[in-house]
Amino acid sequence: MNRREFLSLLMATGTRLTLPDGLCNAAQKRKKMPNILIIITDDQGYADLSAFSHSANDIATPNMDRIAKEGVLCTQAYVSAPVCSPSRSGWNTGLYQQRWDPSASWAPGLPRKVKTIAEHLRDAGYVTGKVGKSDFGRGYHRMDVREYPLNHGFDEFLGFSSHAHDFFLLSEDVEKRTPDPHGHSAALGTLFHNRSRKSFEKGYTTEIFTDTAIDFLRRHKSKPFFLTVSYNSVHHLIHEVPERYLKKHNVKKIPNYDPGTMGKYETYYRKYCKLDPISDKNMRKYYLANLNCLDDNIGRLLDAVEKLNLSEDTLLFFFADNGGSPLTGADNRPLRGSKYILFEGGIRVPFMMRWPNRLPGGRTYKHRVSTLDILPTCLDAAGFTVPSAGNLDGDSFLEAVGNDLPSATHSRALFWRFGKNWAVREGDWKLVKTKDFTSPKPTSWILRGPLAPDRPMLFNLKKDPAEQHDVYEQYPQVVKRLNKLFLKWKNQVKNSRR
Whose CB has fewer CB within 10 Å in the chain, the N or C terminal residue? Predict the structure, then answer.
């Protein structure tokens, strides 16, 4: 007689089963664990969320705004890199990715000896799922690598593993007819589905990912679940949007790639990743159309959470993977710069969280947080021991956000390094060595400043959040202190290879 048959017999005979105290406590704890839902957007601008008081005049994101209205809107939230692969490596591990990628590259991957957030939560009893983009800079288009979701803690996955993917071209047929279907950015064709590939003859990734996420919620609504929904909107190719949204935003449809007449897919992809043939004005319209579709689908996802009676018991995070791209029409104002560089526009992102059982609704949280804090915050919310200081670079901010107090990481310096570029923020001071993004030409929605000198720049972000006034010469002691902090951190992460 197996365990299930034994329990059925006990229930049928009316026999009362008494569990040992330890098992009772474990069962009670499991029941109390909240569901965790993380929604990630791709290259969304800091001004492109209408819940923000500084939002652009042409932005309307009513469904995203629901999260802020019912939860907490963070105005000083940072990612650990100005591009998606290292940023995602950071928040998925709770560690600066430079700890195993000393060159601070585009492609840090995932270390084998470090547990990801999905592994932590699966070990704690969660069923885990990932939908959408899975990009850690390495192991693209393969299932036998650490970076593949099912190899770092996820039970289910539907999506792609590359920097970008075509929104419409998702079939096996188009994949076979395309001479170069699997580039790092210029990728098309079938999507991964667990341990196989799935062909979609019709469909749009934003809608397919939402449908898949809703199906996951329905199937696992009675269990504690961890679900990551990582949209590829509003990344390139920004003009690829269902026609009803193009009509709404008064912009014409650009023909999709055709392998029979257009040669290599990468040629098509590169053609539309910059201004001309798309005008500056129209690039913003395509961006707004793409974002409109994304917002509607996030609304569908939120509606499903409510209809399944999951809202009260679900801790929800929403954030962008890095600053808005300089090439898609994204707007990061009032911040300077964009994706790829270490001015605020590249690393400060839209960020919201909601948990009706624990967090107030309608709060604007103005203290600094980092996406490195997400992993320990999730463990804290689930009632499990957070790894001790030194094992993670972030800390739980659950109590701090709930009480509108500075988080544990607020009082510590934050560091960034991306190739030869670097930055450190301590309090209101930021010392940054970065270059302006100049090629290809950025759209007019990207705020620029005086030409960056060939030395670090110092800014007081409280007085000058747009980083327009370099005060390097006026505060040599601050420069010296921050430079010393950065060099100490750089040496520390270099010597902590994972």
Answer: N
153 torsion bin: left (phi>0), alpha (psi -120 to 50), beta (else): left
240 vs 470: CA distance, rounded Å: 39
* pTM, rounded to two decimals: 0.93
Q: Which residues of 441-471 are buried (b: 16+ CB within 10 A; e: fewer)?
A: ebbebbbbbeebeeebbbbbbeebbbbeebe
* Residue 224 DSSP SS3: coil
- φ, ψ for residue 75, nearest 5 deg: -100, -15
Q: Are 44 and 345 in contact (CB under 8 A)?
A: no
> Which runs of E-coded beta strand occur in 245-379?
314-320, 351-354, 363-370
- Residue 122: how many CB atoms within 10 A of its CB? 18
**DSSP secondary structure string, 383-437?**
T-PPPPBTTBS----HHHHHTT---TTTTS-EEEEETTEEEEEETTEEEEE----
Q: Judge whether 434 and 412 are in contact, CB under 8 Å.
A: no
- Separation CA 75–CA 101 (nearest Å): 29
**DSSP string over 88-129:** HHHHHHTS-GGGT-TT--S-----TTS--HHHHHHHTT-EEE
Q: Which amino acid is at 40?
A: I
Joined tokens for residue 32:
């109390």
Query: Which distant-in-sequence residues (6+ apart) come within 8 Å of 481 by Cβ?
Result: 426
Fold of 30-410: Alkaline Phosphatase, subunit A (3.40.720)
Q: Where are the domains of the chain?
A: 30-410, 417-494
Q: Report the distance separating Cα 99 and Cα 117, nearest Å.
A: 17
CA distance 221 to 48: 32
C-beta of residue 197 within 8 angstroms of C-beta of residue 148: no
The CATH T-level fold of domain 417-494 is Arylsulfatase, C-terminal domain (3.30.1120)
